[in-house]
Structure prediction request, 221 residues.
Amino acid sequence: MPKIHKVKAGECLASIALAYGHFPKTIWDDAANKQLKQDRGNGSVLLPGDELTIPDLRIPEETCALEQEHKFKLKGVPEKLEVKLQAWGEPRANLDYRIDIDGTLEEGKTDGDGLVSHFVPPDAKKILLYVGDGVGDEAEVYELRARELDPPESDSGVESRLRNLGYLVDASVEGGDEEEKTEEERLSLAIAAFQAETEGLDVTGEIDDETRDKLVEAHGS
Prediction:
């Protein structure tokens, strides 16, 4: 019988599918999940409390010759992680970096668009990105919080995207007068700054459907 899975914080479609032995697409395209798919649009941005119907597992059959070696590849594992690094709107191209995925280290270099691209397990728990010349002790360190991006329709989803794009910074980091502003005031200023730098948006400091769509476009998800 199909199961109902209530999404918890830190879960996404890929990690849930892995736990149940399904391809993400099998769950996402199931007719019972049609409304949730329409509401969220992206299985990587689910809210805690969302309910997913998990269909029964189907046992596939393959025809194979005897006494020969056969290889089978599990689709959708691992997932691809992509992060674009920018400074003042310009890509941080050709930078050395090191990425730590649950203790496994890999090195690379950003491409011409400042893109970091790596395959990661769907259930990866801790991802650290070290960026800098030679990736030594002076490297910048970023903790990538996988599976914690909420849908753009939620307040937390808007805040996360503004923070990732550099428009919203913790008051303790900014210091000065910013520490005296309320969270609502700081969010409004961040929205206004994004609107001012985005063609076609009115600068109101308030989130609306057009601003939300542009925010998702700029963020990439």
Observations:
- The two ends are 33 Å apart (CA to CA).
